[in-house]
TrEMBL record:
<dbReference type="GO" id="GO:0098797">
    <property type="term" value="C:plasma membrane protein complex"/>
</dbReference>
<keyword id="KW-0472">Membrane</keyword>
<protein>
    <submittedName>
        <fullName>ABC transporter permease</fullName>
    </submittedName>
</protein>
<feature type="transmembrane region" description="Helical">
    <location>
        <begin position="752"/>
        <end position="770"/>
    </location>
</feature>
<dbReference type="GO" id="GO:0044874">
    <property type="term" value="P:lipoprotein localization to outer membrane"/>
</dbReference>
<feature type="domain" description="ABC3 transporter permease C-terminal">
    <location>
        <begin position="661"/>
        <end position="773"/>
    </location>
</feature>
<feature type="transmembrane region" description="Helical">
    <location>
        <begin position="361"/>
        <end position="381"/>
    </location>
</feature>
<feature type="transmembrane region" description="Helical">
    <location>
        <begin position="429"/>
        <end position="454"/>
    </location>
</feature>
<feature type="transmembrane region" description="Helical">
    <location>
        <begin position="711"/>
        <end position="732"/>
    </location>
</feature>
<feature type="transmembrane region" description="Helical">
    <location>
        <begin position="317"/>
        <end position="341"/>
    </location>
</feature>
<feature type="transmembrane region" description="Helical">
    <location>
        <begin position="12"/>
        <end position="34"/>
    </location>
</feature>
<feature type="transmembrane region" description="Helical">
    <location>
        <begin position="266"/>
        <end position="286"/>
    </location>
</feature>
<feature type="domain" description="ABC3 transporter permease C-terminal">
    <location>
        <begin position="270"/>
        <end position="388"/>
    </location>
</feature>
<keyword id="KW-1003">Cell membrane</keyword>
<keyword id="KW-0812">Transmembrane</keyword>
<comment type="similarity">
    <text>Belongs to the ABC-4 integral membrane protein family. LolC/E subfamily.</text>
</comment>
<dbReference type="InterPro" id="IPR051447">
    <property type="entry name" value="Lipoprotein-release_system"/>
</dbReference>
Length: 787
């Protein structure tokens, strides 16, 4: 073995505590990156394989009614590969033992063979017998949530008729990987089901014999969907087409792809923090090692070792430390990646899961870690190779000290001698102390960034579910109904207040931009479902014009006073221009509102509604639900409290888990920085501390002098970490600004407090580790050496 390599091994063993601390910090950064990249690759690979194997469609469109003779014309659209017409409608379910009404999306299965597109992945049972109209296949998560098995029956109100349906199969579908009911934010597996029935049974129930009301298409490779969608909309407009959309806008796929984008954001941001701190730590260790080995460097050069050999020796030390961290981080990242992917597998319905992180995720994380460590120590190594042999073998010039600012004030007289020594040591090395403060502050910042999610979600719930919604139940109707329907709901048991709403599908155009969206018509002053501005509270709707969210204004490039062209996608399909009269801030979706009378006037209709909000008496809830289950023209029933519970439950399964994980990462970061700082201080001041022990200082006093320095730096780091954490939280919230939701940048004082307490605890653990080493200090051996 080369002599320098033997020296390298001795140095690594001598610095094993600091090497391990740095390696843990590097491993944390590598682990986060491998975890994120591995989860991204696994989710994307699983989705791609699932979509391809079960022929997930590329384009979707719902309509009122079209004859099947229209299908060949759709197939002739340039770029279209496969066309499959079908029937899709909603029904209300009455499940034995479940008080609340549930909603089912009914989707038809073709008369001959399996579906061409969006095929079912049967988990148990079989497809329906087309000769038996009562048979259905149900989605797996609803069956599990309601404890339904093959052969069980459920009652359903299908187009005003109550029917008994029997389950013969349990399946998954690529179209419903993330099954969300009408108006919901998250899947509610107990209250929202997907039922697949025979086409003949659904056609008979909805008077669609020889017709269809929904169509899906696949496209030839490399065919952009935009041109196909334009032609499809023109053909289906006379048949009540509500506007086609591409796979990227299909709600289930959109959620999945958004999750992958969020993981990519995490893979970019968080590892950078850990690798920057790792570079700083390696610089501290190597710089101190080179300072103590000036004489050794001089001897090596005197014996003929070149600058390149000396520099390469110290660079190898850095690379070994980084490699230890990379290996640890790779195992950590692989384990966390598999665990993270399993969490997502519970959220999304996949028939299989491919956890196959590609080698490039390990190579990227490892390469960046090595690069960060080498860049971090480049300056220290450069100083080593520049030393001439004669200069290196001379002791370094002692630093020039002067009376500190603290010593010139009266405050110094109030402090005892050990405390003055602590302050003197910190402020005489401002650069080193400042970098240590930033390193510890980063751990506070990481924790604040994680805890901010809980604060932001709580704020989102308070605004969206509590302040803006006063109703208990929302009922969606199968079609627009006259004002008399309001009296029908007022007469239901337990109903205290009723408020109608008219939802209208449109395509909005402003200049070159357009967006398919929904406008909601509400009373001028709402009592149950409020138009709520996060910054200003409830909004009264003006007599005319649009009130739009800031997100929709951003999408369309609109501002107050602009006139937006609305292409209505139902009824007589008028095209009108409407001015924007106000822009408001909301965290969910990109809503647009008009006064109910204005929408009906625009549509040349009487005062019709298709959604009804109810406030109810909880004591009569069971009687009300029993009536709603039997009511015709009801397509879905949504409970506000159930939506809040599902939201909290989903967040508890994901956000709280990740907050705990990042708390561990932040603790590792704080331990790594504080431990290295204290160990370097012990190495530098070992002779001084031993001298103090010999002249009569107690073990507690020298521990206080050494560890008090770490405590002071930690306390100084807390406000710095809070500032950095606030900045990172704002950046993270901005990066999660999507069309579906925005994360409000809210940090409660308690989050700052928890972050500081965890960091102080981690620093205390590091101090105890160094204190044990200080207790074993060999006074005679230390005093015999110059260093």
């Amino acid at each position: 073995m080369h002599p320098l390599d033997r020296k390298l091994l001795r140095d690594l063993w001598h610095l094993k505590g600091q090497v391990l601390a740095i390696a843990v910090v590097i491993a944390t950064g590598v682990g986060v990156m491998v975890q994120s990249l591995g989860a991204i690759q696994s989710l994307q690979a699983t989705a791609d394989a699932y979509y391809e194997r079960y022929r997930f469609a590329d384009v979707f469109c719902h309509l009122k009614r079209a004859p099947k003779s229209l299908v060949p014309r759709l197939a002739d659209i340039p770029g279209v590969q496969t066309v499959e017409p079908r029937i899709v409608e909603y029904a209300t379910l009455d499940i034995a033992g479940f008080e609340e009404p549930a909603t089912a999306l009914l989707s038809s299965l073709p008369e001959r063979g399996k579906p061409l597109l969006n095929q079912l992945a049967l988990q148990s049972g079989r497809l329906v017998d087309l000769a038996k109209p009562e048979e259905v296949v149900v989605n797996e998560k609803f069956a599990a949530a309601q404890d339904l098995t093959l052969g069980d029956t459920v009652q359903a109100v299908i187009n005003t008729q109550k029917r008994t349906l029997r389950i013969v199969g349990i399946a998954l579908s690529p179209e419903h990987t993330y099954a969300i009911g009408p108006g919901a934010l998250m899947p509610d597996d107990k209250r929202y089901a997907i039922f697949w029935m025979g086409e003949r049974a659904l056609a008979g129930a909805f008077d669609l014999d020889g017709a269809f009301n929904d169509v899906t298409l696949t496209l030839l490779p490399h065919t952009p969907p935009e041109g196909v969608i334009q032609r499809l909309d023109r053909i289906l407009a006379p048949y009540g087409g509500s506007g086609a959309y591409a796979r990227k806008d299909q709600i289930s796929n959109w959620f999945l792809m958004s999750e992958i984008d969020q993981l990519a954001t995490m893979a970019r941001l968080l590892p950078s923090i850990f690798l920057i701190v790792a570079a700083f730590l390696t610089n501290m260790v190597v710089d101190r090692l080179i300072a103590t080995e000036r004489g050794v460097i001089g001897l090596l050069k005197a014996f003929g070792y070149s600058d390149l050999e000396v520099g390469w020796h110290y660079m190898k030390l850095v690379m070994v430390i980084a490699l230890i961290g990379v290996v640890l981080g790779s195992f950590l990242g692989a384990g966390l990646g598999q665990w993270t992917t399993s969490i997502y597998a519970q959220m999304y319905s996949f028939p299989f899961l491919l956890f196959r992180p590609l080698p490039d995720s390990f190579l990227i994380a490892g390469g960046l870690s090595l690069l960060a460590a080498m860049v971090g120590t480049a300056s220290a190594v450069r100083r080593a190779v520049r030393l001439a042999p004669a200069e290196a073998m001379r002791p370094p010039a002692p630093p020039s000290f002067s009376r500190s600012y603290l010593a010139q004030t009266g405050l110094a007289r109030l402090l005892d001698q050990p405390t003055r020594m602590i302050f003197r040591q910190v402020f005489r090395w401002p650069l080193r102390s400042g970098l240590t403060v930033i390193g510890i502050g980063m751990s506070v910042a990481v924790l604040i960034m994680a805890l901010q999610w809980i604060d932001s979600i709580n704020r989102l719930i308070d605004v969206y579910f509590v302040a803006a919604q006063r109703q208990d139940v929302t009922v969606s109707l199968t079609e627009v109904r006259p004002p008399s329907v309001m009296r029908d709901f007022e007469n239901l048991p337990g109903v205290l207040a009723v408020e109608g709403q008219r939802n209208l599908d449109v395509r909005a155009h402003l200049g070159p931009r357009n967006k398919r969206m929904q406008i909601s018509g509400l009373p001028a002053r709402q009592g149950l479902y409020l138009v709520y501005d996060d910054a200003g509270g409830a909004i009264d709707l003006p007599p005319d014009g649009l009130v739009i969210s800031t997100k929709l204004a951003e999408i369309l490039g609109a501002k107050t006073g602009d006139r937006i062209e609305l292409e209505v996608l139902e009824g007589q399909r008028p095209i009108v221009e409407v001015p924007v009269v106000r822009v408001f801030n909301t965290f969910i979706g990109y809503p647009a509102y008009m006064r109910l009378e204005a929408i009906n006037r625009m549509m040349h209709e009487t005062n019709v509604v298709n959604t009804v909000h109810l406030r109810i008496d909880p004591n009569q809830q069971a009687a009300l639900f029993a009536r709603l289950k039997d009511m015709p023209h009801v397509s879905s029933v949504t409970l506000r409290q159930a939506a809040i519970d599902i939201f909290n439950e989903t967040m508890a399964k994901t956000v709280l888990v990740f907050v705990g994980m990042f708390a561990g990462f932040a603790s590792a970061l704080a331990i790594g920085v504080v431990y290295n700082s204290a160990r370097i201080a012990l190495s530098e001041r070992g002779r001084e501390l031993a001298t103090l022990r010999v002249i009569g200082f107690t073990r507690f006093e020298i521990s206080y002098i050494l560890l008090g320095q770490s405590l002071l730096l930690t306390v100084m780091a807390l406000p710095v970490g809070c500032l950095i954490g606030n900045w990172l939280a704002l950046g993270m919230a901005k990066s999660f600004d999507t069309e579906l939701y925005r994360i409000p940048a809210v940090i409660e004082p308690s989050s700052f407090g928890y972050a500081m307490l965890v960091t102080l605890a981690a620093a205390a653990i590091s101090a105890l580790m160094v204190r044990r080493r200080l207790d074993r200090l060999d006074l005679i051996a230390v005093l015999k050496t110059r260093e």
